Every structure is written in structure tokens, then in C-alpha cells.
Amino acid sequence: DAMVIQNPRYQVTQFGKPVTLSCSQTLNHNVMYWYQQKSSQAPKLLFHYYDKDFNNEADTPDNFQSRRPNTSFCFLDIRSPGLGDAAMYLCATSRPDQPQHFGDGTRLSIL
Amino acid sequence: DQQVKQNSPSLSVQEGRISILNCDYTNSMFDYFLWYKKYPAEGPTFLISISSIKDKNEDGRFTVFLNKSAKHLSLHIVPSQPGDSAVYFCAASGYGNKLVFGAGTILRVKS
């Protein structure tokens, strides 16, 4: 089945230690998105790629970076995680003007 | 500021009855609205959508109604089934397919 896969499902890191979350897709979609969802809150868009074009949301902290080396993969890098960055991180993909398909998320914990 | 609001954190309905989930938005530039369903430990799954040029869209047991003058949409599930128990997210988009989500409503369908 074509899908969006996020690894790992659970990630624990130490305060200030860089961490990378990954997302891959077999849907061949142009657009890939990263969302942050804190407990009982709405998923919040961090940034997205339209092909190789990177689009950052205005209120996304500088601590968050992303890479998309090819169509299939996209990475979320958190350079110096703080306690407030503990959350569920969701990756999604879509064709332009089509509904987004989500992965099952990575739950990030900060010690 | 929350541009998309789901004011009911939870809803409990008897099996076979109608479930009505509500969503309000503030940004008049939104022109496309979606509902996503999320089971525990899984990512959101697209359920149904509606364009701002319509006021109703139906797909099997699921119907979405849009009232643009009131900036309000609702999802009706008839009849409700225990397998419909999940978190339902309302989302809206304007230019560029970027989604703004509500915080979700937990639906419990009792058998």
C-alpha cells in the first residue's frame, strides 16, 4: 500500500541534544508538510516543501530546520530541543489542491 | 489566535443515532474545508471535504454542511457506529493548500 511512514514512532532525547525525525512516502506527492501537535491542541504547520521549494511558517522557531533530499524523504531537525518541544510531530504529503495524507507521527520526549 | 475552533472537546452518542460535530472559523479567505478522523496511535485520515462554492457534501453516512455567512460547518454521521469513535479534526485552507486545524472533538459512540 502506498503510504507515509514516519520513523521512529517514539523518540527520546536530552535537553539540548540535536534530534532528527524522518518521513518517507511512496505516494510520489509533490508536497510534504511537517506539523507539531501538543497535547489536546490543534496540529500546527511548521513548514512545507513544494518539490524542492522550502516554505517556512512565520512563527516556526529557528530551532527547527528541514531537509528534503529527494521526492520520497523529508527530515525534521531540531537543533537544540527544549522541554517545550515535546510533542507529536506529524508528516503529511499531498498533490497540489488534494487532501493531505498523514503518517502516524513521531512522539518526541525531552529529558 | 485560533482561526478554526471546535468548541466541543467531546461528544457521546448512542449507536444508531446521529452525531453532529461542529466547527467555526474566522478567516473569510478560507475556501476549502476538510474533516479528518484520528484513531489512537495513528495519524489523521481524510474523511470528507467541501468547497466554499457548495453548502453540502455527502459521502455515505457522512455529510458536511457549510454555512458561509455564519462561518460555520458541521459534520453529520448517520447512523453512528461504535467504529466511528475517534477524534475528529476540522481543517480549513485558503491559498496554497496549507491547512489550519481545530483542536479536535472526541466522539464516543456507545453500543
Describe this structure in words.
The complex is a heterodimer of chains A (111) and B (111). Chain A is 0% helix and 52% strand. Chain A is mainly β and 111 residues long. Chain A is globular. The termini of chain A are far apart. The mean pLDDT of chain A is 95. Chain B is mainly β and 111 residues long. Chain B has no helices and eleven strands. Chain B has strands spanning 4-5, 10-14, 19-25, 32-38, 45-51, 56-59, 62-67, 72-77, 86-93, 99-101, 105-110. In chain B, a hairpin with a 4-residue loop joins strand 7 (62-67) and strand 8 (72-77). Chain B is globular and about 40 Å long. Classes of the chains: A mainly beta (111), B mainly beta (111). At the A-B interface, strand 5, strand 9 and strand 10 of A face strand 5 and strand 10 of B.
SSE layout and pairing:
The complex is a heterodimer of chains A (111) and B (111).
Chain A: E1 4-7, E2 10-13, E3 19-25, E4 31-37, E5 44-50, E6 53-56, E7 64-67, E8 73-78, E9 87-94, E10 101-102, E11 106-110
Parallel strand pairs in A: 2-11
Antiparallel strand pairs in A: 1-3, 3-8, 4-5, 4-9, 5-6, 7-8, 9-10, 9-11
Chain B: E1 4-5, E2 10-14, E3 19-25, E4 32-38, E5 45-51, E6 56-59, E7 62-67, E8 72-77, E9 86-93, E10 99-101, E11 105-110
Parallel strand pairs in B: 2-11
Antiparallel strand pairs in B: 1-3, 3-8, 4-5, 4-9, 6-7, 7-8, 9-10, 9-11
Number of helices of chain A: 0
What is the averaged pLDDT score of chain A? 95
How would you classify the helix and strand content of chain B by structural class? Answer: mainly beta
The fraction of residues in strands of chain B falls at over 45%
Measured between the Cα atoms of the first and last residue of chain B, the distance is 38 Å
Question: Main beta sheet of chain B, described?
Answer: 6 strands, mixed
What would you report as the Rg of chain B, rounded to the nearest angstrom? Answer: 13 Å
Contiguous low-pLDDT stretches of chain A (5 residues minimum) are: none
Query: Gyration radius of chain A, to the nearest Å?
Result: 13 Å
Mean pLDDT of chain B: 96
Helix content range of chain A: under 10%
Secondary-structure content class of chain A: mainly beta
Please tally the helical runs of chain B, counting DSSP H or I stretches of 4 or more residues. 0
Which sequence of SSEs, written as H and E, runs from N to C of chain B?
EEEEEEEEEEE
For the record, give the distance between the C-alpha atoms at the N and C termini of chain A, rounded to a whole number. 36 Å
Number of beta strands of chain B? 11
